[in-house]
Amino acid sequence: MARLSKNQKKALSKIEAGKSYSLQEASALVKEITTTKFDASVDIDVRLGVDPRKANQMVRGIATLPHGTGKTVRVLALVTPDKEEEAKAAGADYVGLDEYISKIEGGWTDVDIIITMPSVMAKVGRLGRILGPRNLMPNPKSGTVTTDVGKAVTEVKAGKIDFKVDKTGIIHTSIGKASFPADKIYENALEVLQTLSRLKPSAAKGTYFKSIHLSSTMSPGIEIETKTVAGI
Questions:
Q1: Which SUPFAM superfamilies match (predicted)?
Q2: What is the pLDDT of residues 104-122, one digit of tens each?
């Protein structure tokens, strides 16, 4: 078993064993237990009472974090020439079509989000084996396949995230940075949780929110008492 560092022991000492915290308390505590020298990401992990193997219990959605993610999001817009200026004006980092499809086929995937149009999905679709495993494949459900390219780019740059339950029934996503004030971490986390609540499948029975944990890069997880979260 790996030995805990001095900082890790100090972080653990601030979390009361067996205690579940309110979302407000956890949002402040996650800052206290962050010991990295860089600006750590703050993540939320939610175990849902769903069976992702069943199509009618799949949970996938979009949330626009009120305070953004704190990350620089690199956006590639795969669009036709008539949409290039719109994408550039909205802040896309890379804009084009055939030349970028060729680059991706050659192994280039140095982006965070790819936005494209329905009319070019036949070309983009053949990139599935490269983009799929990297979670970069555009999808209409996540708003990354759209005719309103400018709006999609603007939203992603402003803090729009998409999430999908994994095969074990867990949603994992970043909601900000440890440098954020506690109230901004709280409000971003609340937005994700309330969005998940609205997405509850009608086929899901029993407890929907089984557990919620907040953590930062390399920190221990803080368990959140679900009853303290407004609107879920």
A1: Ribosomal protein L1 (SSF56808)
A2: 999 999 999 999 999 999 9
